[in-house]
DNA sequence: GTGTTTATCGTCAGGAAGACGACTATGATC
DNA sequence: GATCATAGTCGTCTTCCTGACGATAAACAC
């Protein structure tokens, strides 16, 4: 087989799909849009769209993220967090039958965002919402008789599942959990992020010792807050460290 | 922008490129093929080729792997090791200018193989060889006046670098290092794999304690060998465990 | 036999994490 | 204003894991 033969290559459509995760009311939620057209009309799907002819993959993902959420994405290599989300490539899905109409290869990206106001619907999707990932992935199961109980369109359940697993494992050994927090946050708020993403309860005392004892993870801003009730808590910003060594240990599993 | 509009999508070429790694003579090596045609004619590149119209991405990668090495690839989810290599998706590269002729999106895959006899050249590549990754990535640097000192074609240096980094980090927390070993191997041989991939020296006694003390990592076959010289060493096969918990710690960095 | 090489077992100190007690500083309630 | 509930913060103790390194074992080369 002759590689890169410009005269005879099978044409593909290339899209980006986004797994946008946030933590709302102690639950890990993903952004879902309702499809307005066939196939899978009326079903929920991940936001996404075609890559433009002269657009890089990461640029396409960032553009879709802005269109859907208004979030400004940061480069994967500069994990600063201003009013933006963390964005990284997740994986690529190219089963020949994943789209019944034509051959579509989708480069999925993962975005982590702090809790936001209502999502803004893109021009093409007639509605968008944050939904708990458990509900989105519970296929036909436990959900109320809600449109949420229907499976996601295309192979988006698989993509979402892979994105959630990436997020779950990545907060173990990186400081990425701070991407779910506002610019200033307390140790307790960060702990609730871990608890929501992992679905477990963590010991507040050991967690406090761990995160405050890891150099470069958190830097105190000097302020305090009582927005969570109880005794006032110190406010922190994310420090420069991106890798946690030793990592945060996820209980049992 | 209307997603999945079959009447108006920009056509892309989709390829798979392979980072095939092995350990030869205590060095981490990658499979490189010499390009027989323009662009980058005569330069070294990663093996790869077009995805066929009705072929899944992983199937295309497995096919290319067989064509280049004769290795039978295993499914990423069934990490058994018979006469086959570990194969997993690495990342996707889609810079609009990465191929000067047309828009090509390449889904790179990472393969880990035991030390093999000479690679077999595919029909399209006039030569193929194992080369130390250090030499392939040393752009214009230290190499002898060898064709190896020229940078790899396209963005393949970046792809190879990402693949090597993935391998380096993945053997920390998984049993994947056994994919570099023959079906039966000794603790010392496994240690030399880690040393070659990480480029460090490990304490033989602590390494032995770690790998033999991790349940499911190694299972003794009962046999022994002296092929490394010295006192006879027990032979092991890879156990069922795929995740190492706690992980193997990489010194310093 | 002596030396060299590799494998394997053991010991010890230091660090990190889980379990959990205790105290502190707010707001809510009586 | 006293009491209570809530959340945050500091310690202690035990256990496990790792790194450093001594010691022994079993082959081969001479």
How would you sum up this structure, described in words?
The structure is a homodimer of 253-residue chains. The first copy, chain A, is α+β, with helices and mostly antiparallel strands and 253 residues long. The first copy, chain A, has helices at residues 57-69, 133-137, 156-173, 187-198, 204-213, and strands at 13-24, 27-34, 44-45, 48-50, 72-73, 84-93, 104-112, 128-132, 218-225, 233-238. In chain A, the strands form two sheets. In chain A, strands 1, 2, 3, 4, 5, 6, 7 and 8 form an eight-stranded mixed sheet that branches. In chain A, strand 9 and strand 10 form a beta hairpin. In chain A, 42% of the residues are buried. At the A-B interface, strand 1, strand 4, strand 6 and strand 7 of A face strand 1, strand 4, strand 6 and strand 7 of B. The first copy, chain A, binds a DNA duplex (30 and 30 nucleotides) through residues 186-188, 203-206, 208-210, 212-213, 226, 228-234, 246, 249, 251.
